[in-house]
Structure formats: C-alpha cells, structure tokens
Amino acid sequence: MEPKAIFEAVKGKFGEAVVELQEEGFRPAFVVVSPESVREISLFLRDDPAMKFDSLMCLSGVDYKDRFAVAYHLHSLEIGHRIGVKAYLPREAPSLPSVDGVWPAANFQEREAFDLYGIVFTGSCDLRRILLPEDWVGHPLRKDYKYPEFYHGIKV
Amino acid sequence: MSHDPAHSGPAPAVGPVSLGPEAHVMVGNADKFINWCRKSSLWYLLFATACCGIELMQTGASRYDLDRFGAVFRATPRQSDLMIVAGTITHKMAERLIRLYEQMPEPKYVISMGSCANTGGPFYKDSYCVVKGVDLLIPVDVYVPGCPPRPEALIDGILKLQKIIEQKRNFAAKA
Question: Best of A142, A144, A156 to disrupt the B interface by mutation (most B CBs within 10 Å)?
C-alpha cells in the first residue's frame, strides 16, 4: 500500500485527528496525527486487514526547538509496506498516550524518549529512566539542556 | 630450612652450626621477596566497559598470553590484585567502579587503559555522562595511552607496574 493510500484510509477513519501527509524528504512518508489519538490510530494500523503494521521498527523523540515530536516507524512483515507516524507536542509538559500495549517493543524506546527528552507517555506499563541514573536531573538531549557542574561530587 | 626430626622439645638456638649439611637457605631482603611475589601474580579483575575490553581479552588470550607474567583474570574483585579499567566510565558506572575497587583486598593496583579511562578521550569536550578520567574516582598507578591500546602497550603497562611494585618498601618506618 502506498503512503498516500494509507493516509487516505486513516484520514477517512479518524478525520480531524489526522493532520497531514509529509512526503517531501521522508522515506517512508509521515502521517502527522494529533497526539491524543496516537493509541487509537496505532491499534487501527496494527489490526486493520489492509494495514497489518505488526512491527514498530523505531520510536524516536525529536526536539525542534519550538516543539517536540514523537516519530514512529512502522513496518508490516506480512504485506511488506512501511509508514511513519508523527505527533507534534508542545514545548511545555509534552505528553501523549503510550503505545506499549499495541507493540510491546515500544516500552524501552518510550523510556529512552522519556529519559532524554522528558516526553511523558501516559498509561505506560513502566516509565522509568533507562540510560541515565535514576536521580539524574533534567533531560540531556533537549536543546536547552544545561550541563550540571557536578554529579555526586564528580566533575561532569 | 631442614629440621632434624631426631630433635624434640624446644628447638635449639639457630646458628650457622645447627643448620647442618642438609640445610637449604636463601638469604635476602624481605621487601624484595614480598615484592617479587606480588609482581609475579598480578591477578586482574575482569572489568571491561568498552572497546578496550576487546584488546584486554586479546591480551589475555593465547597469542599475547598475559599468563606469562603471572597475570590471570578473576571474575570477582575479592580475588583480584589489579584493576585494569578498560573502557569508558559513565557517571552511572562510576559508583559501581568505586564499589568494585573498594571490594578488592590490599595491596591493590589500578591500570587506566585507553583514552577514555585516562581523560574521557573522545567524550572529553562535550559529554554530560562520561567521567573525564578514572583518576577522578580512584588512584591510578599506570596510564596506558591509546584508543584502544594494542596488547603490546598493555603488556608494557603491566611491566611498568611490576617495576613500580619492585620499588615498594613494605617495612619502612611509618611516619
């Protein structure tokens, strides 16, 4: 299925929640959706017989300076097509529903996005820091992150 | 030193005469003897956090054969004399490293292997998570430069450490 057709199908089902299709410079193309509907759209993309996106290849956080984004790369092993899904989040208190109930592989990647960008995935089964120590302050991959001078008395 | 089994009761005063023709005596400096023992059985802790660990394994394997110097790996700090810090140390790892070091029995030695352990290496300039040199955490005896150092360099580091151990004074008056 071509990205255009996938976009049309999702748009037909979810209407306003689907914002646009970003084709220029992206491979696969990105379907931009509103953050609140990420979980429903994910379930649709996984379960619909024409979609069957059974594999979440990658879940990434992005910092665009004025806003954040979470990008999902999906692949269907059965049909062999791919699509990206993207949700833009506000700079202040970025949060969106977790998809670890849809694809269990999402959990570690959501934890990484939470650890390094501070994006909160609501309804996650286990949202903790994954790479940095539990008591680390801040989210280091944010563009406005200030390095601490010391961590536990050791110079950073 | 042989001891005459015919003798019973309190041992006679030891002198040149009492040793007899069977005696095997080595006279030497206790410091030298102890240092020789220590330098010849440097059991090192298996502690590898990055690519230097691959070179460490290679050094211990048959081609470079670190066993020649009496250095064999131990999987527990409680049996180790030497910690070869092979690889990048992050702040999360730093606490574990200090704990491992504290569990090692005295006397203990540390070799800092590779750029990351020496100074932070490629992560020196702009990294929030890498400790800029393991000497910020524990005392280091020998630094081995390289990224990563070849096994020859690590062996040279161990020989340098043996030289350091040879010079230790174990019975010097405490200040």
Answer: A156
Name the closest residue on chain B to residue A154, using Cα atoms. Answer: B136
pLDDT digits (tens, 9 = 90+) for B82-118: 999 999 999 999 999 999 999 999 889 999 999 999 9
Burial of B28: CB neighbours in 10 Å, binned 0-12, 13-18, 19+: exposed
> Between A133, A148, A156, which is nearest B92 by CB?
A133
Measured CA distances, B5 to A127, B8, B14, B69 (Å): 75, 7, 15, 38
pLDDT per residue of chain A (156 residues) written in tens, 0 to 9? 888 888 888 888 888 888 888 888 888 899 999 999 999 999 999 999 988 999 999 999 999 989 999 999 999 999 989 999 999 999 988 999 999 889 999 999 999 999 999 999 999 888 999 999 888 888 999 998 888 888 888 888
- Spatial contact of A71 and A85, defined as CB atoms under 8 Å apart: yes
Residues on chain A touching B92 (C-beta within 8 angstroms): 131-133
* Nearest C-alpha in A relative to B134: A154
Question: Which of B83, B77, B106, B95 has its CA nearest to residue B136?
Answer: B95
Pick the CATH number of A3-155 from 3.30.460.80, 3.50.30.80, 3.30.750.24, 2.60.40.1120: 3.30.460.80
Identity of the residue in B95, B128, B131 whose CB atom sits nearest the CB atom of A140:
B128
| A132:B131 CB<8 A | no
* CA distance linking residue A25 with residue A72, whole number of Å: 16
CA distance A32 to A43: 16
Q: Tell me if B92 and A156 make a contact (CB, 8 A cut-off).
A: no
Query: Which is nearest to A112 in space by CA: A123, A91, A128?
Result: A128
Residue A122 forms beta bridges with which residues? A97
In eight-state DSSP terms, residue B145 is: -
Please tell me the distance from the alpha carbon of residue B43 to that of residue B74, in angstroms, as a whole number.
6
